[in-house]
Request: fold
Amino acid sequence: MQRPEKSEALETKVMKICPESLALAKELLLAGQVVAFPTETVYGLGAWAYSAEGIRRIYEAKGRPSDNPLIVHVAPGASLEGIAEEIPQRAEVLMDRFWPGPLTLIMPRDKDHIPSEVTGGLETVAIRMPSGAGARALLSFCGIPVVAPSANTSGRPSPTTALHVLEDLGGKIPLILDGGPCEVGLESTIVDLTEEKPLVLRPGGITLEMLKRWIPDIDLDPGVKGAISVDAKVVPKAPGMKYRHYAPKGHLILTNAPAERWKQWIREDLSRASEEQGKDKTTVRIGVIASNEMLEDLEQEGVLKLCHAAISLGYVKEPEMAAQLLFGALRQADEKELDIIYGEAFSREGVGEAIMNRFVKASAEQRIL
Ligand code: TXA
Ligand code: MG
Reply:
C-alpha cells in the first residue's frame, strides 16, 4: 500500500521571460494563482490584486503574518484608479521624478476595490511602478495590478535571483519567471505621504538625499532611524519593519572595528572552540562578509585562511555593489553552514542607510566602536 504524501508538492516551473511564459503567468494570475517574477529591487511573489484566493496563497506560501500588508505593482503608464482613493500632490511630484523605479508610495486606499486583505486592514495602500524589465513585461502583458511581497520564506533574506526563490518556494508555487540577478538588490524605498509629515518608512535604492531635493521636509521614520541598533521602544510605521528579518542561522556580529580587531576576535573564537570541544580548530566555522579592502587586510596575516568562507561585498567606495550583493551573501552564510559570521558595517551615507537597515536586522550582535 502506498503511504499518503505529507503535503502535495507542486511542480515549480522556472522559465525565462518570453511570450510563452508571460501567457502562462497571466493565465495563472487570473485563475487566482501566484507567480514569482523579477523586479529591479528583489524578486516578488505576485498575485492579482483583486483575487482573494491569490492573496491568500501569497501569505500561505511565504508563511507571512497576515497583518503585514502587500505592495500593489502597476505597469508603466497605468492609472491608479481602483487602487488609490486620491493621489496626494506630493505623490505626483515623486511619481514624476522616480517612477518607474524602486520607490513605493503609501496613499489612501480605494476601499471599494482594493480588498482589505491586501492592506492588512489599513486604510492606506502601498503602490509601486517597477522599472525592472521583467516586472514591466509581466505587468504590461497582463494589464492588471499585481500585489507582490518579496518572494522569500518569511524571515529569510529577500531573493535576488530565481535560484533564491526556488530554494525558498520550490514545490509551493507553480511558476518562477527568471530575469537574472536584480540590479538594486534591496527592497524599494517606502514613502508615506498620507500624514502631514512625509516619512521614509523603509530606506532603499532611492535615498533620503534624493527625496529631499523634491520634498525638503521628508525624514526617516523614527522607527527605522537610529545609530545602529533596532530601538524596540519606537515601533516602525510599516508593519513589516518590526519583524526580525534576514538573519542567517549562525551568529552574525556586525562591526565597524578595524581589521586588527577582527583578526584578534577570529583567533580567540577558534582557540576557545578548540578548548571547549577538544577537537580540531576547524570544527567551528567562521566566516566574514566584508569589503574587498577588509578581506585583503585579513589575508595579510593569514587570518582569512582560518575562515571557512570569505564573502565579498565589493569595494567600500561602491556601496551600490554591496547593496546588490548583501542578500546573496547572507544566504551563502547558511549554505556554508557558518557558526559565527563577522559582517562589516558600512557608512550610512546614500544607499548605505538601506544596507545598514537590513544588515542590522540580520545581525545577532553589534560591536560598534
Ligand atoms: O522592492 C520591493 O518593494 C519588493 C518588490 C517585490 O517589489 N517588495 C517588497 O514587499 O519588499 P514586502 O511585502 O516584502 O515589503 C512590503 C513592506 C512591508 O514592510 C509592509 O509592512 C509595508 O511594505 N507596507 C505595505 N503596505 C503598507 C501600508 N499601507 N502602510 C505602511 N506600510 C506598508
Ligand atoms: Mg519582504
